[in-house]
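I had to read the description of the data format several times before I understood it. In essence, backbone conformation is discretised, so a fold becomes a row of integers matching the chain in length. I therefore recommend that a typical entry be quoted early in the introduction. For illustration, here is how one protein appears when written out as sequence plus structure tokens.

***
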Amino acid sequence: MKSSEFQLTVSKNAIAFVRCWLPDVDVPRAVVQLIHGMAEHSGRYERLALALTSAGYAVYAQDLPGHGRTARAPDELGHFSEHAGWRLALQSMRCLQRELGEWHAGAPQFMFGHSMGSFLLQDYLSRHAHDLRGAVLSAGTADPGPLRAIGLALLKAEALWRGDDEPSALADHLTFRSYNRRFAPTRTAFDWLSRDAAEVDRYVADPHCGFRCTTGLWVQLLEAIGRLDARRAARVPKRLSLLAIAGDADPVCGGRKGPLSLQRRYTDAGLTDVSARSYPAARHELLNDQCRDEVTADLMAWLDQRVAAG
């Protein structure tokens, strides 16, 4: 296995930091592009990447705007952009995917999106899925419920009051703190992420994790989720293979309800290869929970079957 890091030019004023893991073969079986979640970074997916490269897959993972090493300074963490940040995140995904199509011409391309990355990926699929073989949506949902609209209204008011580039204590209270209360008594503020205490501790100790995101980022996220309706899903190519996964105890997507809602959404849109899977008692980060080996094996089996089918 060979690993490397590089910067990708996204626009005149924006770059994306990218990690790459390549298998020890001349031609990979397929290419997997990983899209991380909010308040984390691409380096946290190395364990999955190593498992995939051992099976012959090339893996690439970028740090989204305002995250990881794409952020140019600590005070940029948690803020997409002054203008059209969601669009910039989609653009960075597209720029990398285009490069991968050239570097690995002929290899099937897959995308994996976790949490916020799953919502970015849903939006992306409605625009650019024509050259993708399949996609995996982790910890996402097609049914955010009425709290999305309520939270959006509150955060828009906060943006008018404090500006959209300040870290939002309100959003943190409505989401992360609320999620954690479901697992009381808790040991840390992030017990909702995983049942594995060591993994939670790694997250807490990582300076590129757990930061508060700005009101502007939250507003753009909630607005985008509101646009992910049946009409958007209908734009996705019917031949695309799709897998939705989550932990049964994941407070972000409503546990198993999240994958099942996505399965219904894309099946109703006419996709013929859509499946959903949930994992008993698992929390938000399946790849860092006690069931991670099972989840990784399931992901690899799903990929293997689609690559073999052509």
